Amino acid sequence: MPDEPRSAPPSRVLVLNSGSSSVKYQLLDMSDSSRLASGLVERIGERTSLVRHTPSASGEPRERTGPVADHEAALKAMADELAADGLGLDSPELAAIGHRVVHGGMHFTEPTVIDEAVLAEIERLIPVAPLHNPANLTGIRTAMALRPDLPQVAVFDTSFHTTMPESAARYAIDVRTADEHRVRRYGFHGTSHAYVSRQTARLLGKAPEDVNVIVLHLGNGASASAVRGGRCVDTSMGLTPLEGLVMGTRSGDVDPAVIFHLTRVGGMSVDEIDTLLNKKSGLVGLCGDNDMREIRRRVDAGDEEAKLAFDIYIHRLKKYIGAYYAVLGRVDAVAFTAGVGENAAPVREAAVAGLAGLGLEVDAERNGARGAGPRLVSPEGARVAVAVVPTDEEMEIATQTYALVGKRN
């Protein structure tokens, strides 16, 4: 009797990004890397919660408002929206659920199938990620209750940066104190830096292991990384996402003694300084706006406060480009990504202005042109490519999740 034909293995991956009051999701089919649906449940716990769902087949978003009590209700709302499009969580085509987890410490260096031990370790890391890991855990536990039979995979923002050498990852403080309290540079936005560095190599027609890239992830949160041969060797964020570049509301690098000064002289509490540096600094602290489009409009209108904020932003960005050029020794490309990096041509132009001696320039026409996919904005034949590479963190999470589940199967 002839063998029964084998059905294709399940190829869909649901990606969840659970925040403290929101859940973002995407459903992808990894057989052809297509996006089947995406959505957002926000203002969880409020009477005016919003559920927005977009099926890729129609491209027309559906929205509804009303109370969504908690994350369990949010995921059930998501499941209902998917089911309405024939994409329900009970589908046999669903291979796994991939979860974004912000902090994996040094323990998690790659995507990991979630079990109780993994949950316990993520929970143990809450003191170094108090705003993110608790929400990530809530989303994971809710999803596990909905589909206990399905592999659930954690993909960590920090894991791409665990390849940093100790010389880059260590702070110059007492080693015993640092080790006792897990104080070191972890880095964040890792899924974006991993995805963009690989896509940049592809844009250049090379393998990732043959390319050195400086990746500039510029959104409301911003970070830079130095990637040598596909491996991160340095990154701008540290123990927390506060270190590094000037951001929308975060200060980035400051002298640590600023904290002591504000405590002793300004009479500010630790919590007040935490709020200042994380929520009232950066661009919004400098000029009252954290939207680069509005800042540029104000600059063009002659607003001196906005111009100073823009100049400080660019100065810090340029310093990191130069520093990571020195770290890498040879740079094949500088890649701009995320909301500001992908859309703000004046930022890209200003960031490399005066760096022609390092091989960095933009072509005005290329840089000013809009485009949806990865593209070069440097002149033809430039020694160092300057690229705009749209990030896709959900696709990166789905890719890593599916690769891991496929290995297990």
TrEMBL record:
Pfam families: Acetate_kinase. The active site is at D157. The keyword Phosphoprotein does not apply. InterPro entries: Ac/propionate_kinase, Aliphatic_acid_kin_short-chain, Aliphatic_acid_kinase_CS, ATPase_NBD. Its cofactor is Mg(2+); Mn(2+). Keywords: ATP-binding, Cytoplasm, Kinase, Magnesium, Metal-binding, Nucleotide-binding, Transferase. HAMAP family: Acetate_kinase. It is an enzyme of class 2 (transferase). Catalyzes the formation of acetyl phosphate from acetate and ATP. Can also catalyze the reverse reaction. The gene is ackA. SUPFAM superfamilies: Actin-like ATPase domain. Homodimer. The record marks H189, R250 as: Transition state stabilizer. This is Acetate kinase. One of its GO terms (molecular function) is kinase activity. Belongs to the acetokinase family. Mg(2+). Can also accept Mn(2+). It catalyses: acetate + ATP = acetyl phosphate + ADP. Mg(2+) binds at N17, E393. It comes from Streptomyces hirsutus. It comes from the Bacteria.
